[in-house]
Specification:
By secondary structure, this protein is mainly α. Helices cover about 65% and strands about 0% of the residues. It has helices at about 5-25, 30-55, 70-80, 95-120, 130-140, 140-155, 160-180.
Length: about 190
């Protein structure tokens, strides 16, 4: 595949799962919806960060994905939430293509975070209270560009393997939503 076609090939192969996740999350037009979103995201990203901590990174990669678990934990505490990571993750990365596919989902979420950040601000969430993770995700958009360069530059790239890993990450996110990450609108958060 030629330069930058990989991003769009991944987008095409993950579109259905991406749309399902966007629909499941919905918009957070009030504080209760935002709290459900933070709960979901915490369950999902804590699991993914745990997996990424065990990755043996290719030696020639100087770049790493944006970690947000710590800032989500602080946001959850601000909101009086107790976020429990999902217990299992079957997302494994045993080659560069799979790793790139998974990171495509995680780093791609930084693009949508800009919109979410403005919605959170309308609810009174700030970079120092309740929306730290969105500030971290949107702080340096050069990370997305660095990821795209890595995606384009890796040799022996297998688009099908990358798409399978990306879809596995979307599936994990959907399971986090379905297993309590986004509880019903009458959700009462646990206090710490």
């Amino acid at each position: 595949m030629g330069h930058s076609e990989r991003r769009f090939a991944l987008r095409d192969r993950t579109r259905a799962n991406h749309e399902k996740l966007d629909t499941a999350i919905g918009a957070f037009e009030n504080l209760a919806a935002y709290r459900r979103y933070v709960t979901f995201l915490g369950r999902f990203r804590f699991a993914m960060d745990r997996v990424l901590n065990d990755v043996v990174w290719p030696r020639d990669w100087s770049w790493r994905p944006t970690a947000v678990s710590d800032s989500i934990a602080q946001d959850a505490k601000d909101l009086g939430l107790r976020v429990t990571p999902t217990e299992t993750s079957d997302v494994l990365f045993d080659n560069q293509s799979g790793l790139l596919g998974a990171i495509y989902v995680l780093e791609g979420s930084t693009l949508g975070a800009r919109v979410l950040r403005s919605r959170a601000a309308a609810l009174g969430m700030t970079d120092g209270f309740g929306a730290r993770h969105l500030a971290v995700m949107t702080r340096d958009m050069s990370c997305w560009q660095s990821f795209l360069r890595q995606l384009d530059d890796v040799e022996d790239f297998d688009i099908e393997c990358a798409a399978q890993a990306a879809n596995a990450v979307f599936d994990l996110a959907l399971r986090c939503v379905e297993t309590g990450g986004l509880p019903s609108p009458d959700f009462k958060a646990s206090a710490d």
